[in-house]
Amino acid sequence: ILITVLICVGSRNSSEIVMAQKQICPYSLF
Length: 30
Known about the structure:
Blueprint: H1 2-10, H2 15-24
C-alpha cells in the first residue's frame, strides 16, 4: 500500500500515469 500511495503522489507530474493510477488508487486527487 505504501508503494501505491508513493506512486500516486509522485504521479501528479505525469497525466498518463495518473489516469492509470486512478484504477489502482481512486483517491489520487493529484
